[in-house]
Amino acid sequence: MSAAPTTSVVPSLDKVDFLKLQNGSDIRGVAVAGVEGEPVNLTEPVAEAIAAAFSGWLVEKKKADASGRLGVSIGHDSRISAQVLQDAISRGIAGAGLNVVQYGLASTPAMFNSTLTEDDAFLCPVDGSIMITASHLPYNRNGFKFFTNAGGLGKADIKDILERAADIYNNLTTESLMTSKEQAHASIKRVDYMTIYASDLVKAVRKAAGNIEKPLEGFHIVVDAGNGAGGFFAAKVLEPLGAVTAGSQFLEPDGMFPNHIPNPEDKTAMKAITQAVLHNKADLGIIFDTDVDRSAAVDSTGREFNRNRLIALMSAIVLEEHPGTTIVTDSVTSDGLTTFIEKKLGGKHHRFKRGYRNVIDEAIRLNSIGEESHLAIETSGHGALKENHWLDDGAYLMVKILNKLASARASGVGGGSKVLTDLVQGLLEPGVAVELRLKINQNHPALKGGSFRDYGQAVLKHLENSVESDPKLQKAPVNYEGVRVSGFGGWFLLRLSLHDPVLPLNIEAPSNEDAVKLGLHVLAAVKEFPALDTSALDKFVQA
């Protein structure tokens, strides 16, 4: 006679504060041991509980139109913890009674697209999708992004899922873990979805060029994937379109990121793609972040299209297609960009808050109240277009740029990437642009037991009051985040970080002298707050 199966709660599970894993509309945690002071909190049982929670959430959301078992796709970037977490996520989904489709190495935008694609051979559309990624964070981190055909889940959904996951985790039994393992073994299917996603990008460029088979023939374009998930773009997108991709680098996935951080905002990363363009005498360089939801480009002369310049380029392209439309950006974009969008391009610049979900949601909101917006884009390289379901897709942004190259070539305009460079002519750029981080010491007695948020808000209020009494400075008439002020030919923005006890300070000015004047005003106002570490600002104004 066999022993009765055990239903005891697993005794060895670590206590986990699930809500601390929330990072806006994503989940982020430490998945690999070895970094001092960063204990692992994204374990296999934690991942399994989160997947089971998402499955329960999805069943509730889809109950009205659910016919049979729901299906969830799973993809991952190149991180070293990807496979282990993919297996744990699969167990959580299968244990909840849903079908699992594994894509292996994939991009975040592809995962959303799998909820829209209609192709039975690829088991699409799926009802929900999970991307295992922590974007450009170090090798020991990982996390999850979730999608349905309505788009990426928002903050409230993530909080709901994490609360459910905590309950599931606290009631995990040895038996339930074994059952989910068996169910996963029986229900997992594997599909090469990236092939269909890349093929759709190729079709988009061909269509824009008037259905020419190889509209990029004669162009030399190099790709830097930073050893993330973007290596497919060279062989599966550019080469079928006729481009030469010799000199492309770091296309192989490697979750230790040995060459540079896969981040279009990182100076070392941008230097690497710029050098590759110049060394190979290429027409264009393209760089992606780890999971390909962000990107940037470099023209044939080594001029970077990232941050304000990438926004200017995309605005020029979108405003040609949709004259007068509103461009929504994050809060740290430059005054020169506003002038460029409104005076040169004839559009409207709506400067909103930091955070790509904030920017995208604001564009959606504007459309809902009758203000047409076709582009939502952050200085980080997250850019989303209305025509692409408001998905922040780094590969699709680059496709829009390739469309411009291809259509210029088709209409007889040569000159490599000059057509792109010409589009941003007239963009005024600052002589000096810095971002300094002023940290709040949460243990300082000045907080009097209050939160860093309350302390940060008090700093901002005091700064705002000090500006009003200075005739040389002018507060921005419309502002959605922090304190933004113009003066000395430039501007500064002090705001509270979305997640951390930090007040980031952005300063842009025509000269170092003007930037220091702005910095000195901020310093004079905030020095009354002893829990605020102003050493970065002190150093800047003294240098």
Automatic annotation (TrEMBL):
Range of residues in the leader sequence: none
Protein EC: 5.4.2.2
Top-rank EC class of the record's enzyme: isomerase
One Pfam entry name: PGM_PMM_I
SUPFAM superfamilies named among the record's database cross-references: Phosphoglucomutase, C-terminal domain, Phosphoglucomutase, first 3 domains
Cofactor(s) required, per the database record: Mg(2+)
Domain Alpha-D-phosphohexomutase alpha/beta/alpha per the UniProt entry, residue ranges: 23-166, 208-302, 307-408
Keyword Isomerase: yes
Swiss-Prot/TrEMBL keywords: Carbohydrate metabolism, Glucose metabolism, Isomerase, Magnesium, Metal-binding, Phosphoprotein
Catalytic activity: O-phospho-L-seryl-[protein] + alpha-D-glucose 1-phosphate = alpha-D-glucose 1,6-bisphosphate + L-seryl-[protein]; alpha-D-glucose 1,6-bisphosphate + L-seryl-[protein] = O-phospho-L-seryl-[protein] + alpha-D-glucose 6-phosphate; alpha-D-glucose 1-phosphate = alpha-D-glucose 6-phosphate
Molecular functions (GO terms): metal ion binding; phosphoglucomutase activity; phosphomannomutase activity
GO biological-process terms attached to the record: glucose metabolic process
Transmembrane helix is among the record's keywords: no
Similarity annotation: Belongs to the phosphohexose mutase family.
Subunit note: Monomer.
Protein name: phosphoglucomutase (alpha-D-glucose-1,6-bisphosphate-dependent)
Biological classification of the source: Eukaryota, Viridiplantae, Streptophyta, Embryophyta, Tracheophyta
Gene symbol of the encoding locus: LOC108997121
